[in-house]
Amino acid sequence: MRLWRYRLSTNFWDLIAVFFAAMDKFREIHDAYEAKVLYYADQHGVDRRLLRLSAEEVAGLLDFRKLEQLRDEHLSALKMVSHNIFRSQDTTDPFDRLVSQIFHELSILKEEQYKVATFAPVYRQEADERSYQMILDEVHEAFPRAVHGIEALFRRAHKRLEELLPHFAADRPTLRSVYLFGDEVAGEFYPDGYEDLLELMFPEGGAMRGLLEVARSFQASGFIDSAIEALERALELPPPLQANQAAIFGELRAKAEAALNELKESQQGRRRQKKTA
What we know:
The radius of gyration is 25 Å and the shape is elongated. The protein has helices at residues 2-8, 11-44, 55-59, 64-86, 94-125, 129-168, 172-186, 194-201, 206-220, 224-235, 246-276. Mean pLDDT is 91; it is low at 1-10. The chain has 2 domains: 2-167, no CATH class; 180-276. 80% of the residues lie in helices and 0% in strands.
């Protein structure tokens, strides 16, 4: 794990941000697909597994441009960042392998959608019923397998990313980025945004420890106002529900309160000096 920090630590936040952007885009595609399939199943009065649609209807289940955008923009960027962080000549992390699988499966799905949207109508016009039905048979099997398979791969990659987050906590730019942009980047997946991410990054102490570390990082870089704001947010956190976390929460809260008072006193002292200068 430690080697990553020395190789390309500044990419940790990129990895987090691009992954959640890609997963959000895929979820949009997945949810639209599911809604259309269920609509058609209801209209035809059949179980979705027995549903048979025309080429036009099947092609409309997925948006080719959105598939292309997801692959060429979000997944390409995610694959590049993931390779840079994890991949060496003879090894990589499971997360990186999952990202490669997602990219590969999404590419296949995109081609299947293109095939049914482009080739099937031509076969119908040419009265080539055999080729038309072959494409329909193929996509009726391929679409649900691919869509649900990619969803499962994203779930596994998400779980692995959560396991990796504690190893990213020591990287200060990543930690500050989680605090500053976590709500925007991951708010669709975590109701409390950056606080939930900090909970995952700091198994011992959770968001309280995370905000304390964020404040220390800001202070070390000379951003005193930002450090004060992070400490004030730390003091607003509710106590943990787990009894075994109560003691460490109390200790960290006391440290945050002491650090906040010290920073405010120091800040007031500098302001007084400026007035008398």
